[in-house]
Every structure is written in C-alpha cells, then in structure tokens.
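Structure (tokenized):
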C-alpha cells in the first residue's frame, strides 16, 4: 500500500526551510524489505509412483514421483532405507538425496533387496510433508552356473546353477 501511495503525485505546497527543499527521500530499504516478504506457500506432499517394470538392475533402482499441484518447488528430498524384517528396523540407516527432477536413479544397492522410498518437496517457504512410502526391489544377481555339473546328450542338456541371493528368487529364465 505504501508503495502505491508513494507512486501517486500529490501537489502539496509546504513552506520549509531551504535546508529541506533539496532533500531526496530514499525508499530503497522499504522496497527491499517489501520484496523480501515471501508469499509463496510451502508445497504439498508429492506422490511417489510404484516401481515401474524394468526400473531395476541388481545394484540400482529408478524412482519416480510427481507433484499434483501448481506449487513452486526448488528441489526434492528423496529418502530411502533397506526394508528389514528384524525387530530393530527403525535403527536401519536412512539415506537422503537432494534432486532437482521428479526422478532419480539410485546406485550401489544390494541385489534382490527391498528398499523403502519417500520424497518431500522444498521451496523458500519450507518443506512439504513426506509422500506415502513405496517399496522398490532390486533385481536378483545372476546365478552362478556349475560348469562341472553340466551334462548333455543328443536331445537334452542338464545345467545346474546356484544363487548367491539371500532372498528367494521367484523364477529363472534359461536361454539357449
């Protein structure tokens, strides 16, 4: 309001001493203070997507999320931790990344392991509530073929392998 008032031309005739006639009033501090007032609200919670097909390797996962509002967002804070079935799962180490996009590929993960992910949006006003948590799973590590146990004949072959994965694997695909 002050800025609008100061833009108006007011025709006042005041009798002042000559010392004050040439004085220029500097409103730059007031203008700077008014510009520093932040009127952007903190963003709403993002929505994390479920794991997409082919979004995992044995050591990496691609996580995607979205923001379904017109909120101003400067960056996102992606958090994750391995899922543990033990009683002390709250003590599991949590990791945090700052990301500019609405996706991120996390590397250096363990094969055939479940990870829990959640994300928050950040802007100058603050941090959004976290998204719902989503569980993603890395791909199993490739099995090791036991070459000494391979047997074959004219119409058949016997191939044996073993898995180094701790968690059970649903199925294997053998390609010839």
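Design, position by position:
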């Amino acid at each position: 309001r002050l800025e609008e008032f100061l833009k108006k031309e007011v025709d006042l005739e005041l009798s002042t001493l000559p010392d004050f006639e040439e004085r220029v009033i500097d409103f730059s501090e007031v203008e700077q203070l008014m510009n520093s007032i932040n009127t952007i609200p903190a963003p709403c919670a993002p929505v994390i997507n479920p794991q997409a097909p082919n979004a995992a390797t044995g050591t990496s996962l691609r996580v995607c999320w979205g923001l379904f509002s017109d909120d101003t967002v400067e960056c996102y804070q992606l958090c994750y931790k391995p899922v543990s079935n033990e009683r002390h799962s709250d003590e599991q180490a949590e990791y945090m990344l700052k990301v500019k996009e609405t996706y991120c590929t996390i590397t250096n993960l363990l094969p055939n392991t479940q990870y829990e992910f959640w994300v928050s949006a950040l802007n100058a006003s603050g941090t959004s509530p976290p998204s719902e948590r989503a569980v993603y799973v890395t791909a199993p590590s490739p099995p090791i073929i036991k070459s000494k146990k391979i047997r074959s004949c004219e119409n058949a072959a016997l191939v044996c392998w073993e898995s180094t994965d701790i968690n059970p694997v649903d199925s294997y695909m053998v390609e010839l």
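Reviewer-requested clarification: The first strand starts at residue 47 and ends at 48. The two ends are 78 Å apart (CA to CA).
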